[in-house]
Amino acid sequence: HGMGPCEAPAALHAAVMAHYFEGGYYPKGGARMLPRAFIRGLRRHGGEIRLSTPVARIVTEPAGRRRRAVGVETADGEMLSARQVLSNADPEVTFNGLVGPEHLSRRLRRRLARTEYSLSAISLFCATNLDLEAQGFDSGNYWFAEEARVEDLYDLAKQKDPLASGTLPGIFLTVTTLKDRAKRTDGIHTIECFAFVSYDAFAEWQDSLYGHRPQGYEDLKARLTAMMLHRMDQLIPGLSHNLVFSSLGTPLTNAHYINATRGNLYGTAKRWNQIGPWSYSPRTEIDGLFLCGASTYAHGVSGATETGIMAAAE
After folding, report:
1. 129 band by pLDDT with thresholds 50, 70 and 90
2. Please, which pLDDT band fits residue 244 given cuts at 50, 70 and 90?
3. Helix 10-20 vs helix 300-313: angle between axes, to the nearest 10 degrees?
4. pLDDT-derived band of residue 158, with 50, 70 and 90 as boundaries?
5. Where is pLDDT greater, at 292 or 15?
6. 221 with 248: CB under 8 angstroms?
7. Whole-number percent of the chain with pLDDT over 70
């Protein structure tokens, strides 16, 4: 949901539950097979894929009483003209960051100012030589909470200091090599583990560069890793002493890799006034500029994919 049960709309919960009633699905070869499939399709239709090419701005020009998107300018100054521009970035990045507030209507500026974004998280990716299948694990997703009150897991994301309590109230864990056994090699299992945290806990380092963060940031990561492993050891006894790899991602990692506002996980917060007909539409007030992704119709892999179909229909 990207928010605690006390805040999640009933309609959102119903949609999430319906998604799982027939069982969850996982692509053979791992999540990377999804973008690979899209890239093959785009290239078949004459598309060109550019990696490591940041966009500096979405170029617009007056078109009567409105504006029209006419292309994008890359960070190195190259202009790419287009009849349509489709943005998968969240609204804050798309409109305030790439279009520019001076080109937006007063109504849209007001809406952007009150838009809320989903929680962020720390993400621990690790590998172990333990036989997790023999320990009873399967392809499912595991939620572990010390107390029955699930809300506690989300309340941590409202605290500026995630270390204050000295422990994590709970974690989410999944064994990816049991979702797709073909991914397991050399007797190694891979695990992904998540816990909700506040972006504010990392905000003091938001202007530092990836790969060159200050020592204070690295120290916080080390302490959070230890807290996560403590919880994981309760689910998988001996895990922390049988790791062959571990790496912790933070809200700043999310911001670095996917340009997510405040390191959000799910785009806009899916409150009642930001879902369905009240969400950001694929069609925008700027002719030729369209939106897709987790900040529009729905979030999650299948939800975001459907927003691409909606944008294509527009």
Report:
1. very high
2. very high
3. 100
4. confident
5. 292
6. yes
7. 100
Angle at 75 between CA 74 and CA 79, to 5 degrees: 30
- Residue 253 contacts by C-beta under 8 Å, 6 or more apart in sequence? 123, 210, 263
Q: For residues 245-275, b (16+ Cβ closer than 10 Å) or e, as one string?
A: ebebbbbbbbbeebbbbbbbbbbbbbbeebb
Phi then psi for residue 4, to 5 deg, are -70, 160
Beta carbons of 260 and 77 less than 8 angstroms apart: no
Q: Which residue has the tokens 């078109």?
A: 63
Q: Is 145 helix (H, G, I), strand (E, B) or coil?
A: strand
d(CA 127, CA 139): 16
Q: Closest Cα partner for 121 from 255, 229, 291? A: 255
Give one word for 87, left, alpha or beta, with left for phi > 0 and alpha for psi -120 to 50: beta
Query: What's the rounded Cα separation, in Å, for the pair 273 and 23?
Result: 29
Nearest-CA neighbor of 61 among 85, 44, 86, 33? 85
